[in-house]
Design brief:
The structure is a single chain. The chain is α+β, with helices and mostly antiparallel strands. About 35% of the residues lie in helices and about 20% in strands. It has three helices and five strands; from the N terminus they run E-E-E-E-E-H-H-H. The strands form two sheets. Strands 4-3-5 form a three-stranded antiparallel β-sheet. Strand 1 and strand 2 form a beta hairpin.
């Protein structure tokens, strides 16, 4: 039997990808915004492609803020942009 592959939408480009291809960002119950490398942390999640363009689109169209239902501090975006350099394709 084939296992069903979970599909998620990137908050930047709005394209659908398998969950494993995307980076998960969560808002924890304590209202912290974190990058969830394991994909299993507790909290409200949003997914983004590992591409710079998608990150900038997500910031511009407030896709992350909408998905996480909270305002996101500028410091998080600056920190995340540095982390994106590791993933950038």
């Amino acid at each position: 039997m084939n296992k069903k592959v979970p599909i998620r939408q990137c908050v930047g480009c709005r394209e659908m990808y398998s969950k494993k291809e995307l980076i998960r960002i969560i808002r924890t119950p304590e209202d912290e915004i974190l990058v969830d490398a394991t994909g299993k942390k507790n909290g409200r999640g949003a997914y983004i492609c590992p591409k710079r363009e998608c990150f900038f689109l997500a910031v511009k169209n407030k896709g992350l803020e909408r998905s996480l239902k909270t305002a996101i501090p500028k410091e998080f975006f600056e920190r995340f942009e540095k982390e994106m350099e590791k993933f950038d394709t």
